[in-house]
Write a structure and sequence with these properties.
Helix content of chain A: 25-40%
Largest sheet of chain A: 7 strands, mixed
Number of strands of chain B: 17
Strand content of chain B: 5-15%
Number of strands of chain A: 16
Oligomer: heterodimer
Number of helices of chain A: 9
Structural class of chain B: alpha/beta
Number of helices of chain B: 23
Strand order of the largest sheet of chain A: 1-4-3-2-5-12-7
Structural class of chain A: alpha/beta
Largest interface: A-B, 58 and 53 residues
Shape of chain B: elongated
Helix content of chain B: 40-55%
Radius of gyration of chain B: 36 Å
Strand order of the largest sheet of chain B: 3-2-1-4-9
């Protein structure tokens, strides 16, 4: 029998979750619908949700990539872009768009907006929540689309796919390469750290807190505790009542966060290849640390401002060159988890 | 004489239509049983698509529930329909709507013509062969199943537990021996007629109605009573994983599937376009089977399942976090070498190891000022940073990553006991640790200090000695899984190969070549005097006081280390 304390704790969790739902509804009011092209209520469809600001460079490839992977409809929140992102999105027939100039920070870094849209459109569908600089890879993604994956997850009674962030960086100096919209970012950013990640199981939310990669060894070397979390749960069979509470790092109800095996086995998992270190990181670092709209007052961007310059080389002799998902699995960053 | 197909389908009807059309195009009659749960509109569409084929029949639609007798009823209905319309068949092959022929159909038909009397049905004595993965075996026949496991899992489990508790045991019909096996069988029409026309069939049906998953036991059991010749194997490849969930087949499995011993395979993913176009291609040539491809495919399937269950040892990742419930919580991937005190004796030891064994060796990776990787590089194996702050943030994970990144070789690093206490404790408890320890080598470091203060020196020596004793006691404890070779400084100075030999042996698995030159050694001039001075200053330099029997042990330690 569960003890009274554990019942009370579980109930408190529920209240917290409800509060997040209320928050989402409150901040969701500030979203102005510009295009609603979403299909009517469906079951098991594959949707993508994304909040963005000034991503005109990355968007063409991003949309193309996920469309090929099998995303059936895109839901974008445009947070005051000024660089033509809005025009690009408008031209996408399979995208619904909301616009807001409200504070990203007040909406808990976009989470409230996402929760609002997920609650409205996500129920009983497979929802992929990613940023524009995140490309999802998973075992067999080159031969099996998201439809194959989600049907297998359904068959296996799994409701979420974890995918940790893997920071990709160029072989040479950061400022050297030049990126053209529509180009595959991985053709420039083809290096990654393969074995310097630390994993810590959090008791409160039961998620794994992952840190590491180039950002830990470079930008947060003075205070590793503050290094960004790399654990993410981007693909979820959404249920009404679910909420993300810190980007897509963790969710409530917390049982959703247990996407790992504790008895020694490996569960299915993918990776989000993080294309943050395209040349525009240098300008962004300056802009975002001034705007103070990001997590912990843009602490992360401030750290980049201090440590990143056009001639910074993140690659080392120990970096791996990215050759595909099989290599990531061999490195132990992702796992096929029984999906033969 | 020919073969007819009975196909059970409940979803993805366009795919089922393609399969049925191909089978019927090859001259084989087909009967389709479409589950009553499938929408009528879809069924009508299927019928319209296949209306041109006059050898495709439809059996009465039954609503079949997984694990219940209705599935057997559907099979019987399909077989009866087929036999009523085409009585002169040789065999009937039972397939599911999501299976595909892996070999050209002509080959299958020829194979059956060669074996007109044989029934190909996997039929294993229940309870004897652990055929079933993750579930009941003989109890499928002896208990009652009022609840469906798929719909009411908890009630199902509770009812099974209750019946076990009260020893419920149903009797099998007289003379019947329960058999189970894959429900995708190929039976000769003679056997099928004998089963369907059995005088006791009503009794058998009544029994099987109360069994669990009778579609895996009805024909399997009754065929044993009527068949002239049973070959107990399924001609349709259908694998289940450890949870009893079917392995789904995709486009990338094509090469493996074509070379399987069987003639059909399931369960094909409905979106596997390449499999459907290629395997249903009528003009497909009958290439001989390649055993190597088949082995590779089967090995892959087995490997994936093993990885799901056991994972890779020494790996911590987003999908594998070995917690308190696992046996190996502080595991590392492969054996590694810990060199303790060798840095004090030898100069440039790491380049020497690289040169003579081809194995990279690292310096003191837990040095308080930062990890000393090869050539003092700022970033080490796997992208680990040399910065002490980051390393000491999670020191145990640092070691695990360090070993994992070099799992294809033999990771080697130097370790000093004054580096990090926690790490020494981890190494002592790690079965993968191979420790090579030069006892009292710290004396050499201490001796080299310029103008030492005698009092400070005495305290330092006492501390170093205490640390070493503690470590050695832990390592030499019977229960310690680590393997260690502990040599006194004198032995190493007298013959450096005493300790370098085992290193070379561990890396190359060969005895070191004759006349191997050791690296430059520091010359311990005045060591005797230094030791005497320390003793006179009040430091007790004997180890035997603490029960450490170090002298007699070296041979046994070496044997264990190199084993």
């Amino acid at each position: 029998m569960p003890s009274p304390t554990s019942i009370w704790r579980a109930y408190r969790q529920r209240l917290v979750r409800k509060a997040w739902q209320v928050r989402a509804a409150w901040h969701g009011r500030k979203l102005v619908r510009t295009h609603l092209r979403a299909p009517r209520r469906q079951k098991g469809a594959i949707y993508l949700f994304c909040v963005l600001r000034n991503e005109a460079e990355r968007l063409p490839y991003f949309v193309e990539y996920y469309r090929n992977l099998g995303v059936e409809h895109f839901f974008f929140v445009d947070n005051g872009s000024t660089d033509g992102s809005a025009a690009f999105l408008e031209a996408q027939e399979d995208a619904s768009i909301w616009h807001t100039d409200a504070s990203y920070r007040d909406a808990h870094f976009g989470v409230d907006w996402l929760n609002h849209l997920l609650a409205r459109f996500g129920h009983d569908n497979w929802c992929l929540t990613v940023d524009c600089d995140e490309l999802l890879v998973y075992p067999h993604h080159t031969t099996r689309g998201l439809r194959a994956l989600t049907e297998w997850l359904d068959l296996s009674h799994l409701r979420a796919l974890p995918a940790m962030l893997v920071d990709m960086y160029p072989e040479g100096p950061l400022g050297q390469a030049s990126y053209q919209p529509g180009q595959d970012p991985l053709s420039l950013l083809n290096r990654y750290d393969h074995s310097n990640y630390v994993y810590h199981r959090d008791n409160q939310h039961r998620h794994l807190w992952i840190q590491g990669g180039p950002r830990l060894r470079l930008n947060f070397a003075n205070n590793p505790r503050l290094a960004p979390a790399l654990n993410k749960i981007p693909l979820v069979r959404w249920r009404w009542g679910c909420v993300y509470i810190s980007s897509t790092h963790l969710m409530l109800p917390r049982a959703m966060n247990v996407t790992y095996d504790e008895r020694g086995g490996e569960m299915i998992s993918g990776a989000l290849l993080h294309t943050k270190f395209l040349p525009d990181i240098l300008d962004r670092a300056v802009e975002e640390s001034d705007r103070l709209e990001h997590y912990e007052s843009g602490r992360e961007y401030a750290a980049y401002g201090q440590t990143l310059a056009a001639d910074t080389v993140l690659a080392t002799p120990e970096s791996r060159q990215y050759k595909g998902w099989a290599q990531l699995e061999d490195d132990g960053l992702i796992s096929s988890g029984g999906w033969a | 004489m020919s073969v007819g197909f009975s196909i059970l389908a409940h979803r993805d009807l366009p795919r089922v239509a393609a399969l049925a059309a191909t089978l019927s195009g090859a001259g084989c009659p087909v009967v389709l049983h479409v589950d009553a749960a499938a929408p009528q509109a879809e069924f009508d569409r299927l019928r319209a698509t296949l209306s041109a084929h006059d050898n495709i029949l439809f059996s009465p639609r039954i609503r079949a529930a997984w694990g219940e007798f209705s599935l057997v009823e559907a099979q019987i209905a399909a077989v009866k329909t087929l036999l009523a319309h085409i009585p002169d068949l040789g065999h009937i092959c039972q397939l599911s709507g999501d299976s595909l022929p892996t070999r050209p159909l002509a080959e299958f038909v020829a194979f059956l013509e060669k074996n007109p009397e044989t029934d190909f049905i996997e039929s294993v004595t229940a309870g004897a062969a652990h055929w079933i993965k993750g579930g009941l075996e003989h109890e499928r026949f002896t208990l009652y199943f009022p609840f469906n496991w798929k719909k009411n899992r908890r009630l199902f489990d509770m009812s099974v537990a209750l019946q076990r508790r009260f020893g419920v045991k149903r009797k099998l019909p007289e003379g019947m021996v329960a058999h189970i096996g894959s429900q995708w069988w190929v039976l000769s029409v003679a056997t099928l007629r004998a089963i369907l026309n059995d005088a006791r069939r009503a009794e058998y049906d009544a029994f099987f109605k109360r069994c669990w998953i009778p579609d895996e036991s009805y024909f399997q059991t009754l065929a044993r009573q009527h068949s002239q010749k049973i070959e107990s194997r399924a001609l349709c490849y259908a694998r289940f994983d450890y949870e009893g969930k079917p392995v789904v087949l995709y486009d990338d499995h094509l090469a493996g599937l074509q070379n399987l011993d069987s003639y059909f395979a399931r369960k094909i993913w409905a979106g596997a376009d390449a499999l459907y176009t290629h395997l249903l291609d009528k003009s497909r040539p009958a290439l001989p089977r390649q055993p190597a491809q088949r082995e590779a495919f089967l090995r892959h399937i087995g490997q994936v399942e093993r990885r799901r269950l056991e994972g890779r040892r020494g790996l911590m990742m987003q999908a594998r976090h070995v917690g308190a419930r696992a046996r190996f919580t502080r595991e590392t991937a492969v054996p590694y070498l810990v060199l303790q005190g060798l840095d004090s004796v030898f100069e440039e030891l790491q380049p020497w190891i690289l040169h003579h064994t081809g194995q990279r060796a690292m310096g003191r990776i837990y040095h308080p000022k930062g990890a000393l990787f090869e050539n003092d590089q700022p970033v080490g194996p796997g992208g680990l940073t040399a910065l002490s702050v980051v390393r000491d943030y999670r020191p145990a994970e640092f070691l695990r990553n360090f070993v994992w990144a070099q799992r294809n070789g033999l990771p080697i690093f130097a370790h000093d006991l004054c580096d990090n206490n926690k790490v020494a404790r981890i190494i002592e408890a790690d079965p993968n640790a191979r420790i090579l320890h030069v006892r009292s080598a710290w004396l050499l470091d201490m001796m080299r200090q310029p103008n030492p203060d005698p009092v400070a020196l005495r305290d330092q020596a006492a501390a170093a000695l205490a640390r070493e004793k503690q470590h050695l006691a832990n390592v030499l404890r019977e229960s310690s899984p680590a393997r260690a070779l502990i040599l006194p400084l004198g032995h190493v100075l007298a013959n450096p190969m005493n300790i370098l030999g085992p290193i070379v042996h561990l890396v190359t698995h060969q005895d070191p070549p004759e006349g191997l030159q050791p690296p430059q050694m520091c010359t311990p001039k005045g060591l005797g005097q230094f030791i005497t001075d320390l003793k006179n200053a009040g430091v007790n330099l004997t180890y035997s006081d603490d029960g450490l029997d170090l002298r007699s042990d070296a041979k046994r330690q070496k044997a264990r280390l190199l084993a």
